[in-house]
Write a structure and sequence with these properties.
4 strands; Alpha-Beta Plaits; elongated
């Protein structure tokens, strides 16, 4: 599982935040076949925390997929990544 904390400085409303995150989450899901959900900062316009999950019989493979998906987010987010963490369950 990966956690990505985001700062979205150009977003001016919750609607704008949802729009920006929706496209990003859809691209990550389609490209890496992971689950992505906003898990924190629901009421803040310019902050978001995304959780990514990958199920695999091989923990090394799951870690690699999640790491690549997190790198993709960092490269394509309309803002900046504040913090990341990865946990293998």
């Amino acid at each position: 599982m990966g956690i990505v904390d985001l700062h979205l400085p150009d977003v001016g409303s919750l609607k704008g935040k949802r729009h920006a995150l929706k496209g990003l989450k859809e691209r990550v899901r389609a490209r890496y076949e992971v689950s992505v959900a906003e898990v924190d900062h629901h009421d803040l316009w310019q902050r978001a925390t995304l959780a990514l999950a990958c199920v695999s019989h091989d923990s090394r493979h799951a870690n690699e997929v999640v790491s690549k998906a997190m790198d993709f987010i960092e490269e394509h987010v309309e803002g900046r990544v504040i913090d990341t963490s990865v946990e293998i369950l």
